Amino acid sequence: MLIIIAFSVSFISMVALSLFSMERFTTFTSYSDLVDNTNLVISQLYKMELHIRDVDRGERGYMITRDTMYLRFLNNAVDSIQTSISELGKITAENPKQQNNISLLKSSAALRIAAARENIAYVDTAKTTTLSKYYYDSRQLMLECSHTLKKIHDEENVLLAERFKGERFYEQLTTSTLEYLLFVFCVITLVLFFIMIREFKGRIRYQEELQAKIIDLKRSHSELQEIAYAASHDLQEPLRKIQVFSDMLLYQKTEGTDAESKVILGRVNNSAGRMQVLISDLMALTNLANTDEPKTSIDLNRMLQYIIVDFESKIAEKEASVQIQELPEIRGYDNQLKILFNALLDNSLKFTRKGVHPVISICCDLMSGHELSTVNPNLLHKKFYRITCSDNGIGFDNQFINKIFRIFQRLHTQESAYEGKGIGLAICQRIMANHEGYIIAHGETGLGAQFKLFFPVEE
């Protein structure tokens, strides 16, 4: 849990710092683009100034030499002026003030070009060397163009200074942010590393303690099995002697034995018999802990046919109906599965209602482990054969579900009409555990009981 919290905090911190760094870098990039844009405008202004001077040189050269080469020079300068003004309009589109200045420049340049053309036309037709008013007008318009260009240039220089200052500021801020980010990343990495080392050492220590407890548990389990086995075997001999001696007193020496003594001896004999059955059941449960035998492929349909034959007399006595649908073939322990289904059928035939013919149903379906999600969430996506054994007997209250699978736990008293020692369902649960399966019970008082067996599907 600590590692998850630490990683979550580090991840959130790194994301926040990264977003902050990206925002700073984006601002720095935008300022850098603005600086590049301003430099491009200034470069275009220099070109515009050269083109306007070229118009002036072409005009004067033609006035002096009457050489048409200057006219071509002038026309090229005019084309270049129009291109430069168009480019200036595009690259200053987001600056309304400069757009207004460029409009003034465009107007002044147009008047300057018009004056130059009129002056050249005058030179071509005039018979005198006196300068025309168009020449003086073009001089004045040249000054106006230069003034407008200077105004635009000054504006761009101011913008360039501001933008360059912002670029330098955010460049330094971005650099320092990246340095802090690297520092924080190193600190978080080191903290996480030490947390993981500490957690890893704790887990190793816990694993060693767990391993030691598992060894102790195995040893205790082995000792308990030996004790249970020895106790069950050692107890059987005294019980047999008790039964033999009580029988001798009860049946062989009838003279001198009053009726009350016979009743007491009968109770002793019955108690010894119940004790012997309990010991036998306990031995059966103890033996189930050992699953050294290999699993085999078992046809449940065939197995249940043989079990039904064993119960024929009891089924006939109860006038019961046993309905078995198609069952799967699974891998398991043959003897244990016989005990399992034998115990379930025995319960259904034992706990019946008076005046109601027992109906026992056994069916199977293939399903995922969603019904076992409360038992183990990891089983949600596994496949199971679900074998459902249901009856219409006396049922039970669901509040006792956990109790019915405990050893020697009965829902009925010893004096009730129903036989049993309270170990049958504990054996069933042990058998399902040996098959890596699960058993779930559901009952309704006076309506019946249902037991669901979940056998994992082997891939």
Describe the structure.
The strands form 2 sheets. A 5-stranded mixed β-sheet has the order 2-4-5-7-6, with helices on one face. It has a two-stranded antiparallel sheet with strand order 1-3. The protein has helices spanning 2-65, 68-91, 96-125, 133-252, 259-287, 300-310, 312-318, 334-350, 401-404, 424-434; strands spanning 296-299, 321-324, 329-332, 359-368, 383-391, 438-444, 448-456. By secondary structure, the chain is an alpha+beta fold. A hairpin with a 3-residue loop joins β6 and β7. Mean pLDDT is 81; it is low at 413-418. The protein folds into 2 domains: 2-196, Four Helix Bundle (Hemerythrin (Met), subunit A) (Up-down Bundle); 296-456, Heat Shock Protein 90 (2-Layer Sandwich), CATH 3.30.565.10.
Summarize the structure.
The protein is α+β, with helices and mostly antiparallel strands.
How do the strands line up in the largest sheet?
Answer: 2-4-5-7-6
CATH class label of the largest domain: Mainly Alpha
Helix content: 55-70%
Major β-sheet profile: 5 strands, mixed
**Count of beta strands:** 7
Rg over CA atoms: 52 Å
* SS-based class: alpha+beta
Regions with little confidence, pLDDT below 50 for 5+ residues:
413-418
- CATH topology of the largest domain: the name is Four Helix Bundle (Hemerythrin (Met), subunit A)
Note the total helix count. 10
Q: What is the CATH architecture annotation of the largest domain?
A: Up-down Bundle
* Integer tally of domains: 2
| Tertiary shape | rod-shaped
Strand content: 5-15%
pLDDT average, as an integer?
Answer: 81
SSE topology string: HHHHHEHHEEHEEHHEE
